[in-house]
Specification:
eight-stranded mixed β-sheet, alpha/beta, 8 strands
Length: about 300
């Protein structure tokens, strides 16, 4: 039986006005994000993390020795603290950790690898401020989901300890959009289409190799990375990105939990105020983060 909430949501998303102007798209996604009011017990504290505009969100029962480093989606071109604050806060609640959400620099003004550099700087900030690597979950959605894995590669290559885990939501890890689901799921995905993906990739890469592992982690050597939770909707054009990421990670002996959620669309978590499946997915991600940070281990589940 179809989930009536996702059916209604898909219809509503399909009716949204869409602009080709980047500045307008940024305003639109931020306005939608601000419509999702934070739960009353959430505290927001602005902070600069090694030069990166960021903010803490906290709920009353968090363990301050643990943190979720949250990386918003938006194709590296749009999105901000405003657009994803409500999701970042609830991810931290589910993980029972503080959330440090970062406003990494966006393309085309700041192309690849600016987002990776900013994430690495924020990770160093957490370590320098007393959060142990085994208490850190790096989480993100869409482009932010790909950035989770890219950041973990950058962390490894910088000689820093891995976080406890990575939590990737509808990850974008293929700058060339060659997965079969880009076409096969086009009719069921109201958010992400191949032409839009390629346009954002062009802005982000700015001439860089589309198969650079820090832009497209499926082409990287993922050995030594912390365990990954990959959540993706069955109705997404990015379904194959998630499946291919799981294959590459698993082949590199990275512990992987791939969850394919029936009927769900791109980053359905962001719609949790109206979508029960979004709340369940956030809870599942939080459970994974709690299990990994309580062990402080990256040897497996």
């Amino acid at each position: 039986m179809s989930d009536p909430e996702i059916v209604a949501l898909r219809e509503a998303i399909a009716k949204r006005p869409r602009s080709d102007d980047i500045a307008q798209r940024r305003r639109d996604i931020d306005a939608r994000g601000r419509q999702n009011k934070l739960v009353a017990d959430v505290t927001v504290e602005p902070v600069t993390a090694n030069g990166v505009k960021s903010e803490w969100t906290l709920t009353p029962d968090v363990d301050r020795s643990k943190a979720v480093l949250y990386l918003h989606g938006g194709g590296y071109v749009i999105g901000s603290l405003d657009s994803h604050r409500h999701l970042a806060a609830e991810a931290g609640r589910a993980a029972r950790a503080r959330t440090l959400a970062i406003d990494y620099r966006l393309a085309p003004e700041h192309p690849f690898p600016a987002a990776v550099d900013d994430t690495l700087a924020a990770y160093r900030f957490l370590l320098a401020n007393g959060v142990p690597s085994g208490g850190i979950t790096i989480a993100g959605d869409s482009a932010g989901g790909g950035l989770v894995v890219a950041a973990m590669l950058a962390i490894r290559d910088a000689g820093l300890p891995q976080p406890a885990c990575g939590w990737t939501i509808s990850p974008w890890v293929d700058m060339e959009a060659i997965g079969d689901s880009m076409v096969g799921k086009a009719a069921t995905d109201p958010t992400v289409q191949k032409a839009g993906i390629l346009d954002m990739a062009k802005h982000y890469l700015n001439g860089a190799d589309p198969r650079s592992p820090l832009a497209a982690p499926i082409y990287g050597d993922l050995r030594g990375l912390a365990p990954l939770l990959i959540q993706v909707g069955a109705a997404e054009t990015l379904l194959d990105d998630a499946i291919r990421l799981a294959q590459v990670a698993g082949a590199a002996d990275v512990a992987v939990d791939l969850q394919i959620w029936p009927e769900m669309i791109h980053v359905w978590h962001v719609y949790y105020p109206e979508l029960a499946a979004g709340r369940r997915a956030i809870a599942a991600g939080g459970e994974f983060a709690r299990a990994m940070t309580s062990r402080g281990s990256r040897s497996g589940f």
